[in-house]
Amino acid sequence: MPLRLRTGKLARFAERLVALVKEPGDKSNGGINYVGKRDCDLLLERIRANFDAVEKARDRANLLKRRAGLIAEHAIFNDDEDAVPITGTVAAVLAIDGNGVVTQSDADLPGDN
Q1: How far apart are CA 22 and CA 19, in angstroms?
Q2: Which residues of the chain have pLDDT under 50?
Q3: In a designed cystine with 89, which of 25, 49, 76, 95 is the match (CB 3.0 to 4.6 A)?
């Protein structure tokens, strides 16, 4: 599943970059205003910086996916059509450290309503 960038500076940068890449196909040769080397170097630097941001976002997405999987292993539902699990079955705080080690501690959740 591809990473989706919906908000923030990174998404706006991606939209501008896509428009820049598509421009030669949308215009005739004389209608394109190509920039100089300095502008190209600046754009490449911005691409590198944003690539790092994408990698960090992908890491966060993978961590959330793993945490959701761990929660799903313990969640019990009253009925197949329920959207919310029984409170006590997800009453744990899961922490995943930088080495991937999972620690679990009980959360103090209010009782079933």
Answers
A1: 5
A2: 1-3, 5-6
A3: 76
